[in-house]
Amino acid sequence: MEALSKDLLAEAEERWQRALDSPLEGVPFTYEEFADALSKYDFIFEIGDLVRGVVFKTDFNGALIDIGEKASAYLPLSESCIHKVKSVEEVGLYPGTEEEFMIVQEDDDNGRVIVSLRKLRYDISWERCGQLKADDCPVSGKVLFANRGGLVVRVEGLRGFVPFSQIYFGMNQEDMVEKELPLKFIEVDEERTRLVLSNRKALAATQLGVGIGSVVVGTVQSVKPYRAFVDIGGTSGLLHISQISHDRITTVENVLQPGDKLKVMILSQDRDRGRISLSTKKLEPTPGDMLRNRALVYEKADEMAKTIRQRVAQAEAAARAEELRLQNGGGFGLGNLAALVDELGFNELDLDDIPPVEED
Fold first, then answer.
1. Among 87, 95, 259, 288, fewest CB within 10 Å belongs to which?
2. So what's the pLDDT on residue 195?
3. DSSP state letter for 164
């Protein structure tokens, strides 16, 4: 039995070595005969077929593609990309580049099939945009131009639209042309070729990373009679005339100028609408310091903000204690109080009016 196993093993090793040495042994034709047989057949391509090809020559008008089987194809410049380009090199096509192409025309005047990358990438881009919207992912879009309704942007190779209502307030639309904007998808409709995006939604998801009551440094972007827009870490915040100082101000231009450096406190954040409200008034050690001694305001800014946060925390703790007392005593609690607060407008209560809670 052992001798038989050795014989079988030896025979297997011999056959394996013979296959390595003469791989065509027993095959009734040679490589050359097989290639000659293939050359007698014409391969027929149909519109919509996908083929792999290798770029073997480029020119100003497109590229010649080797798609094998004695066939060549031509990729016109207009079919190389979703948007307009000046050369196929702009989309990464050089001699030797291998890609998958779609047949869009069976043959041209020179007997070559016409292939396209644009159609393939168009479909992929729409699919990707749909997935990015489903995942609520931010994207970067390049502003191509502005029109009466908003900004036209390029995102994932496609043209999209950002309505002015979805652009973060304070931005100068004309200055944004050729710039990159953070965006999120609002609508992706391939059938109607509609891509609608929001800059506010994108910023709301990532802005600042600091909370209400925090002090940040910003630069005045633009000034209007009753408000100023302040750049804080790439995000624009609103500083209303009523939040600059306790003293009366007739116009913001008399106090602030574009380029001014400010220390401001985050007064509120509306993430859904992409808005941030700011205040320097809350940071004044004494009323009117923003007009008379701005350096002192900035020096004491963190200290003043800390005091305000402590007072707010004390007020919240007192409110929670009151809720428990009312619940234990059969009262209606804060659930109903919240409705009354909204109705009476107490949400606009000045934080400086909240008295400190005295300890027992």
1. 259
2. 93
3. G
Q: Cα–Cα distances in Å, from 288 out to 252, 291, 309, 326?
A: 14, 6, 21, 41
pLDDT score for 186: 92
CB atoms inside a 10 Å sphere around CB 216: 19
> Which two structure tokens, joined as six digits, stand for 293?
């001694």
Contacts of 207 (CB under 8 A, 6+ apart): 235, 269, 271, 274, 276
pLDDT tens for each residue of 7-61 = 667 776 776 666 666 655 655 656 566 566 545 555 567 788 888 888 888 888 8
Q: DSSP label at 45?
A: P
Query: Nearest to residue 169, comparing CAs of 254, 226, 238?
Result: 238
CA separation for the pair 236, 145 (Å, rounded): 21
Q: What is the CA radius of gyration of the chain?
A: 35
State which H helix or E strand residue 270 sits in. Answer: strand 261-270
User: Tens digits of per-residue pLDDT, 249-260?
Assistant: 999 999 999 989
Summarised one tens digit per residue, pLDDT across range 300-322 is 888 888 888 787 777 777 778 87
Under-70 pLDDT residues of the chain: 1-8, 12, 15-44, 69-70, 107-111, 168-173, 204-210, 233-234, 271-274, 329-360
Q: Which amino acid is at 284?
A: E
DSSP of 270-303, one letter per residue?
ETTTTEEEEESGGG-SSTTHHHH-HHHHHHTHHH
Backbone phi, then psi, for 258, in 5-degree steps?
-55, 135
The CA distance from 249 to 113, in Å, is: 73
What pairs with residue 223 in β-bridges? 228
Sign of CA dihedral 122, 126, 132, 135: negative
Contact present, 97 and 51 (Cβ < 8 Å): no
Backbone angles phi, psi at 264, to 5 degrees: -130, 155
Residue 263: count of CB within 10 angstroms of its CB: 19
